[in-house]
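Backbone Fold Data
Goal — fold tokens
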Amino acid sequence: MINNLLVIFRDKLGPGLIFAAVAVGVSHLVQSTRAGADYGLALAGLIVFTCLIKYPAFRFGAEYAAATGTPLLDAYKRQGRLALIIYIIGFPIDMFIATAAIVLVTTGVFKNVFFININDIWLSFIILSSCAALLVSGQYKFFETIAKVVVVIFSVLTVIAALLSIPEVNWQTEDLTREVVFDQTTILFMIAIAGWMPTSVSVSMFQSIWVCEKAKSLGHPVTTKEAKSDFNLGYACTIILALCFVLMGTTLMYSAGIATEASPSGFAAQLMDMFSQVIGEWARPLIAIAALAVMASTTLASLDVCPRISLSIIENLLPSFKFNRKLFYILLLITQVIGSTLILVLFMKSFKTFIDFATSVAFVSAPALAWFNHRAVYSKEIPEELQPGNVMRIWSLLGIFVMLAVASYYVLIKLS
């Protein structure tokens, strides 16, 4: 029995749990906790709704890769240069702005774990450089193993902490749902939560690459059934964990009138306090290490996959250009490290403001990417029997419409 479970964990699971490890970063530790701390349980429905409307776009990335053996970028190219160009225009957001936001949270957790006093930007650069050095070997198997173990441990700890936080409040007398006034500030915060809930739609491209890498590591193709099962497990995990952080933010901060800290290390300290308050002070070191491992795996994922996509973009745009992939991978890693650090140097004046900006801009390109994913999975490259059914088709189109409406509203606000 145990051997069978280990085989399933080793061979059948992978990209879906990596997806969970990536998603649990900024959107869960920061935005979900802030939602609970600032609004109680009022925004829990928004989180579930957002995860539902984005679900088809993410799942299509895994399905397309499993059915064709190629990443979504190939499908974008087949749809015409416009699709490829739109993706390329938005790609620097993932490569630099998103990576900067991720490493900033990682920095806060790192400082809290090791009790060091060093400038956030310098520490971010050190962490990025260290992660890049680990990835130079380009070993997917190494990264996958770390991510799977980390997300399982952290998920268990988070669920336990969330359940133990329930008795912390008097549900009979306390009102844990703040009335939501739909002014511009609140709406922008809701968009910031939705932008990376459970993560950016662009991660569907990452998901397709991870499925292809999984097939290489196994030595045989991943079936669409295996890809869907693996992804569904990871996606369900992200929804449950998001709600756990909302619950803890509500019961341990909102009910106590505790405001979220404005600095990365201060916010990280509040996260550690939340866990230790309900599990026990004895668990603080374990929780701290697990949280650091989660954020480190998220940083590793961003650093690993963005250069891979960049290489694919170069190959698609310049098919006759011959280059050393390993050398270019290293050069692109260095570029990403330097570029992400410069983003922090130039634009990080406030932790909360920067995180909200990074998560909000993700919604601008979301409807276009979701549409490209929809077209990819229903294209002639995939046999009809492997294409998602009509329910999923309608679900996808409705999600694209909602994302387009939200993205349009956000752009109008910013332009007005």
